[in-house]
């Protein structure tokens, strides 16, 4: 049976937290660089690349989302 490495002392909280915070900062930096925002050519509002505009509902100059339609939210679940 193979022997495994066993720590001699308990790892302090500050060391665990600092290691985790360094990891989180790196992930946040990567995510910030991956989100690409463009301006909508029709309304000039911000939108994600290759997505329909959330303010006017247009994509590539044509209407793909009906923004005049009212969306009713479900407030109660009927069983």
- The shape, in one word, is elongated
Number of helical segments? 1
How far apart are the first and last residues' alpha carbons, in Å? 57 Å
Give me the strand/helix succession.
HEEEE
**Secondary structural class:** alpha+beta
Which percent bin holds the helix content? 25-40%
Structural Rg: 24 Å
Portion in beta strands: 5-15%
Main pleated sheet: 2 strands, antiparallel
Strand order of the largest sheet: 1-2
Quantity of strands, as a count: 4
Average of the residue pLDDT scores:
84
Oligomeric composition of the shown chains: single chain
- Low-confidence segments, given as residue ranges, are none
Overview of this protein structure:
- The protein is of the alpha+beta class and 79 residues long.
- The chain has a domain at 29-66.
- It is 28% helix and 13% strand.
- It has 1 helix and 4 strands, in the order αββββ.
- Strands 1-2 form a two-stranded antiparallel sheet. It has a two-stranded antiparallel sheet with strand order 3-4.
- It is elongated.
- The mean pLDDT is 84.
């Amino acid at each position: 049976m193979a022997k495994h490495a066993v720590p001699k002392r308990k790892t302090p909280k500050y060391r665990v937290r600092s290691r985790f915070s360094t990891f989180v900062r790196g992930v946040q930096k990567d995510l910030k660089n991956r989100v690409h925002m463009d301006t909508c050519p029709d309304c000039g509002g911000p939108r994600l690349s290759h997505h329909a505009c959330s303010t006017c509902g247009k994509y590539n100059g044509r209407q793909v989302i009906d923004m005049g339609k009212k969306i009713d939210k479900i407030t109660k679940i009927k069983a």
